[in-house]
TrEMBL record:
It comes from the Bacteria. PANTHER family: SINGLE-STRANDED DNA-BINDING PROTEIN (PTHR10302). One of its GO terms (biological process) is DNA replication. This is Single-stranded DNA-binding protein. SUPFAM superfamilies: Nucleic acid-binding proteins. The gene is ssb. GO terms for molecular function: single-stranded DNA binding. It holds the Pfam family SSB. InterPro entries: NA-bd_OB-fold (IPR012340), Primosome_PriB/ssb (IPR000424), ssDNA-bd (IPR011344). GO terms for cellular component: nucleoid.
Length: 124
């Protein structure tokens, strides 16, 4: 049986891209995007709008490019896969999903407010 683990989003960055480096100096960029949608209310027939927010992670050279070119308001197409995450906080297990970008297309670039984009932070 085949499996599929893919996502595709077109959205706008809600803040500048954050660039970090792992202990082994691997770059990782993190950015949040807002994705707008709409639906028709079945009772009233009114079209209602909503916004979903996703935190995207990208690794390697693509991470450095994202930090260099993607600032708040940039529009991007992002495609990739999802990974389950789990950690403990205050004795409770916390579960989440990481959205790992494998393909990013810059649709409308707005440079980060500062070119460093929080560069140089080490992460575990």
């Amino acid at each position: 049986m085949k499996n599929l683990n893919r996502f595709q989003f077109i959205g706008n960055l809600t803040k500048d891209t954050e660039l970090r480096y792992t202990a082994k100096s691997t770059p990782i960029a993190i950015f949040d995007i807002a994705v707008n949608g709409s639906y028709k209310d079945q009772e009233t027939g009114e079209v209602k709008e909503y916004t979903d927010f996703f935190r995207i992670k990208v690794w390697g050279k693509a991470a450095e490019n994202a930090a260099k070119f993607l600032g708040k308001g940039s529009q991007v197409f992002v495609e990739g896969s999802m990974r389950n995450t789990q950690y403990e906080s205050n004795g409770q297990k916390v579960y989440g999903i990481d959205y790992i970008a494998e393909n990013i297309q810059y649709l409308n670039i707005k440079s980060p407010a500062s070119s460093s984009a929080v560069a140089g932070k080490k992460t575990d």
